[in-house]
Amino acid sequence: MQICIRFALILTLWAGFPGICPLIWARIVRIDITSRQSPTFDGRVFGPVGAYEKLRGRAYGEIDPNHPQNALITDIVLAPRNARGMVEYAMDIYIMKPVRLGSGNHKLFLEVNNRGGKLFGGLNNSRGGNDPTTAADAGEGFLMNRGYTLVWNGWDISAAPVNNNLTITVPVATNPDGTPITGPSYEYIVFDNQGVQSYTLAYPAASLDKARAALTVRNRLNDTPVTIPPDGWEYVNERSIRLLPAGTPFRQSAIYEFTYTAKDPLVAGLGLAATRDFVSFLRYATADDFGNPNPLAGDVQYTFSYTLSQPGRYLNDFQTLGFNGDEQGRRVIDGMENWLGGSS
Could you name the domain of life of the organism this protein comes from (predicted)? Predict the structure, then answer.
């Protein structure tokens, strides 16, 4: 298991005890809308709901690492803190809403993105895409015709900042004395395409000494892994490995497994708090700490989420570990649809 992507299996029912809450809540402290396209979908009108507009931007949040609800996040006590003692994060946000917000159905549709990508197109019988813009991108407009406000936020630290993916920025955990944290890491490597000559590691290697790492390969899951000798692979740098001699591709569909000592774990569990606090902000807040208005202020009456494949596991953890209530005990998501949740 890769370091720092696990969560302590503790559920603390803190929200049920009024009067013992901290004065500073975890929250979105700033929301920056960096672009607004109004109307979007080439001005297409969706029945009585009317036209839609698209807002893109960045949200900045902070959480109290000492609050019992946040204590489940692995390594949160080792994350750097700001002057208020809070741990900070930042994430991409994306909102599509009726231009006349009051003409919508006052329901928020949160798609928990899959590795940064939007997969909601099937609901609209459309190609969807990561930046839906044209009338064709709306397809049959199932969601828009019914007046839903559609929102997305970055949560997955592994989402690459390409192709309009939604990303999140979280801090690196360090030892109390400031030295790097190291620990065992495991990579399961399978390429369905041919000709791939290098692999990017999830975390940087703490050492480039190949004696402290091992690479194996097998054709099928039931086969016995075969160790690739040290002269059969090398580190390109601390974040990448390749086979030797240089130019040798990884075998298509073969199963490679790489174990090594990694460093600089990211506080990945902040992705759970980020979704919690973003939806809570949209549902309950009027403005952020700097006076920037909540673009959905006073409108959201119900919230629903939708996932396809991998993020279904994320939402299971989100619910099971208690993140579906904000720190003031208010419900975050009213209904969850985990469609075709991937197994692992």
Answer: Bacteria
In the chain, the amino acid numbered 209 is: D
The answer, yes or no, to whether residue 111 has pLDDT greater than 60, is yes
Boundary of a domain, candidates 263, 278, 300: 263
For residue 316, what is the enclosing H or E element? helix 311-320
| Number of domains forming the structure of the chain | 2
Alpha carbon distance, N-terminus to C-terminus of the chain: 12
Write down the pLDDT at residue 231.
97
CA-to-CA distance for 341 and 119, rounded, in angstroms?
13
**Is there a domain that residue 215 lies in?**
yes
Examine residue 301 and state whether it is found in any structural domain, yes or no. yes
- Is residue 167 domain-shared with residue 310, that is, in the same domain? yes
Q: Which domain holds residue 77?
A: 14-172+267-339
Q: Give tens-digit pLDDT for 44-76.
A: 999 999 999 999 999 999 999 999 989 999 999
In a domain, 7, yes or no: no
- Which residues neighbour 303 within 8 Å (Cβ) at sequence distance 6 or greater? 107, 108, 110, 279, 283, 332, 333, 334, 335
Structure tokens at 292: 């920037």
